[in-house]
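User: Please run a holo structure prediction.
Assistant: Happy to. Please share the sequence and the ligand.
User: Here you go; the ligand is copper (II) ion.
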Amino acid sequence: MSTDPSASSDPAASSSEAAGGDEAAHTRSIDDFDPYGTLAVTGLYFVLLLVLYALMYFVEFAGRGASIIE
Amino acid sequence: MHIHRFEKLWIGLSLFLIAAFISIVMYGFTVLDLTVPGSDRGGGTVDAMNLAETPFATPGVRKTEDGEYEVYMLARQYFFQPGSGQSLTLPAETRVTFKVTSPDVIHGFQVAGTNINSMVIPGQISRFTTVFSDPGEYGILCNEYCGAAHHTMEGLIEVVPPSEFDESNLIEQ
Amino acid sequence: MTFVDTYPKATRIVKATFIVAFVALGLGGLFGFIQALHRTDTFRGIIDSTQYYDLLTGHGVLLALVFTTFFIAGLYQWGISRSLDREPEDLRFSWGWFWTMTVGTILASIAILGGLVPGDGISAAVLFTFYPPLQAHPLFYIGAALLVVGSWGATLDWFFSFWKWREDHPDDHIPLQVHMVLFTMLMWVLASLGIAIEVVALLIPWSLGLITNIDPLLPRTLFWYTGHAIVYFWLLPAYFVWYTILPKLSGGRLFSDSLARIVFVIFLLMSTPIGFHHQYLDPGIGMGYKLWAVVATLLILLPSLMTAFTVVASMEHGARQRGGSGYFAWMGALPWGQPAFAGCALAGIMFAAGGFSGMINASLNIDTLVHNTIWIPGHFHLTVGTAVALTFMAITFWLLPQLTGRKLKFPKMALAQPYSWFIGMVLMSNGMHRAGLAGIPRRTAEPGYSGFSFEAPFGSIMEMKIQIALGGTILFVSLLLFLIVVVGTWWAGAPAETVDDAIPPALSGPEHTPKILDNIKLWLGIAVVLVILAYTLPLADMLADGIFQPGVPPSPM
Ligand code: HEM
Ligand SMILES: [Cu+2]
Ligand SMILES: [Cu+2]
């Protein structure tokens, strides 16, 4: 099993690159496939959510003039 | 069951995110005093078809026994009373408690550019307290559809420095 | 051999539901286009501002209620028939629910469009939330009730098929698509009880004059009992597509069968008991219920975040099969030139953004910043208006050949459709979100006031208006492209020799899935208990002073 994210984790993949159909789905089980790309994408989303949320809450919202305080 | 280790990690991150959001909201709610209207905020209910026997019969600003200001306001098709026609004058840097209700349909009460925003529901009194820190003009608008002329329903609050606030216009208790 | 050859009877039902769905989509989209021009003051020559609310009612009802419900009915009928390998058990029953829903839609539409015809005494400018004491013509409420009852009929129909299948397969796992259909529909039946009670017990007798005064808070609360869960009734069928079809369209396989089922189980449990987050700013609802709604609403992020991971991982699997590599570069290897794939993937990207504004909306006190501003339509055009609607349109491109035996007509237009929708929605939704932060209200024909003006935190109000108007125009063009492709294929598509309709199994298949995830009775039981816990006390509070107290007379619209 490859841990290098730039290499396809499925040895059979290269032979069926172009097919795109069902035959392309060669990976046999979930453990033959480490979705590094997914981890990267969702990790980025996670950071973005935290930062944007904090900005919205503390700057846009809590920073406004009058609020309901009671 | 079979869960990939990356997915376990992601579920952990997701739970962290949820916990962080809940904590931020609770922090704002308790420490920063950023709250919302609700039935346990002392508003209570009122008979919308018999407002004549309530303070809403003479809407306007009052002073309570503890020296705080209260605004009794009606949101109705299609104006705010007080607020529309003639602006509602309030002192800056002072606690002001609004009590808003409606004699006809559901309305919204929003002060543009602020976090003052509440539903106004016939039979219920929206009660909330705020402080305007800066003097100036603040627009009021109805943000819940209330009928064909909903888009014309607006008003104005004029916030003046506390020293300039004229108490002779207050409604007598 | 494809769906239409194997299941000709089911095909006719699916096609019928799609026809109603697409007529509603076309008409509703036209109204949306007019609204976008009108409220930004780009062009106000089509309607006057009082008619704006008739159109807005039509837009909300036709798109959020009619288009969604009919498309879901067709999509799920397709899923049930192909997964269980069965035609509907009793065609009279199937056509029965179809016509119940359709007659309901026609009645409600007459009531709404009647408002545009002066002097006919029929109107229903109450918007799709129809808060009393705003009162519509009785046909509006009767139509809404029939639409809901019809959807219950569809649910029963699919359970009939499932029970029959069960007789021959006593020990099998429920096929994944069927699991998703059944859990969505159970959630919907449980959730729609609120609106059904509201409409049948209160609003129909009230609109007929049998009751005069009504307590506005009670129907509003019943509406939102259904009103939050309904968004998951729209969303779960999009998840159904993302989990079971999108991996194949990407050239790969679903990542995990068990996680997909867990997600649907959580939605059954958690969708309904959180409706109070739509009433954060209501007087008359206690703070305890609101705080509970915050926690529960944020918790329901979990199944959606899990979905994001599983769906992206399935796409990545496809991309790597197609030669993709790297942390981010693999995305380039996905089949962006295929309309069905592109539509689903772009819908997913939009949903990530809509998810963010949803997290904001869920956060109690920050609602005082965004509540009833146009930020809210900005949010839900990303969710139901794109994540759901664009997925439905995209998957139509993939389903049509199976339903008609014809090749997709105008493939270039089909490919332009999801991209133009995406661009239009980026503009419209960006304009709406930011205009909302400036305080501009939603549901308002002329959001410009005589006594004051809005100040933008950044950017300018003018630029936001342009984005909304331009975005709305592009969206409408995109919608026309969609309709042209559909009508073209249906009428004049070339016969297809072979249709690629196979769906490969999951990487971690049902053999790894615990049986308990298939236990319908158990999960339904827990869901009912949660609803009872969440709603008994607040409803008891509201009813304590009498069902119709504190009351007000109706205000006909
Ligand atoms: C051609 C594409 C579309 C355009 C141009 C459009 C435009 C608009 C605009 C401008 C509004 C705001 C009206 C206001 O608050 O004053 C609106 C509201 C709304 N839209 Fe859309 N929309 C489109 C597609 C959709 C789709 C596909 C859906 C759902 C499936 C949808 C659901 C809604 C709903 C539920 C509302 C709220 C109605 C209400 O407040 O009562 N729209 N739309
Ligand atoms: Cu209004
Ligand atoms: Cu909701």
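The CA atoms of residues 76 and 102 of chain B lie 6 Å apart.
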